[in-house]
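name: query_chain
kind: protein
chains: 1
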Amino acid sequence: MHFNFKSREFKNFKNSEIKTYFSRIESKSISIIDQSAEKKDSRYAWIDIFPLDGMPNNKILRKIHQFNLLRIRMLLQYSQFSKIVNVNLTERPIFERVLIGLGKFIKPDRFLNTEYYNWKLDVCLQRYTFANSDYVVNFMGAYKFKEMFPKSFYENLIDYKFESLQLKAPQEANKILFQMYGANFMQPPSDMIKNKHFTKIIINDKDLVN
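structure:
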């Protein structure tokens, strides 16, 4: 299925009503019902935009920075627990399942301020510049620090064919895929991972995908 992103908007927490930290492009021609969290959410179809942020060059400082980022990210997720945390996705590490169980019990979005933690994360991620860092990370991606790689991976890009397109991607693509997804990265994911937002897609008020 191909979507026509005509009436599209660039949004992030700084210029719009959305609460996610990273930016996205939305298309008003397509509506989506996200059924992954405790509360269903109706929104426009979107494409997430994930930046690469710098990390400390010193290994010890890098570990400290990683811990601090994970702490802030957890509090940010907790601050909007009932709306964005995927409680239906069971294919998770055990510690994530424990945190979700705790969130269901304490309802943390009652007392945590999303805007505060978005800005706190923004300041923390800008602490180390891309230009001066040997390692960079797509921290807000699903795999967190499994998405941290030497910056040199992204400086050596080559052309890959994707259907009818020629796209730029790292020359070390296999190393990136292996680190993120494991040795079997060429195998299709489970049905749950394929639609982990448990979405319905609606175009012209007609359900197309369940």
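note: The CA atoms of residues 201 and 208 lie 6 Å apart.
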